[in-house]
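Hey, resending since the last one bounced:
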Amino acid sequence: MARQVNRDSATDSATDTVADSDAVDGPAGAGEPGESGPDDQFRQAKSVCLRLLAVRPRTRAGLATALARKGFDEETSGEVLDRLERAKLIDDAEYAEMMVRSKHTHQGLGRRGVKSQLIRQGVDADTAEQAVRAIDPADEEQRARELVRKRLRGMTRLADHAVIRRLVAVLARKGYSEGLAFRVVREELASAGRDTDSLDGVADET
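The structure tokens again:
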């Protein structure tokens, strides 16, 4: 009897998983354009977009890519995306503002890093630039210092020149400017009693 209950429980769990997947992506083939008229194509394309937007916000470019992968033509996709923009269901500027808060505050990315990610996700350069202007320079510097202090705690056995190289590289990958990276690393190493002679004048030159 116990074995039967366990099998039934596993079956129910698998069924729930499939149901959850269908709620997001639709059943296999759902939303893909078939042999139908323009109105049906429009409804199918809109359905694809609404399912994706129900999961998380998307850029117009991201949705356009999803529709292209599903096989919808550019004209149908454009009409659907225009309609969703007019309804404020797509708003790249609002999306960019949300991503700035997430990427900078929670992931510690610098301005350059956030802007680069926004552009990769389909936000145009001007909108991305406007969004990252909301990052306060003092706050950006503080996030850089927090990253350096966190990494520095695990580098007690490394030579000073190796520590400098690694910390500057960390900040560069996070999208902080060279000048800010060198200055923050130098000041934090000095506070920790580490040698910073190799960084003298570097921050001023970058």
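The chain has three domains: 2-86, 92-132, 137-205.

Sorry for the duplicate.
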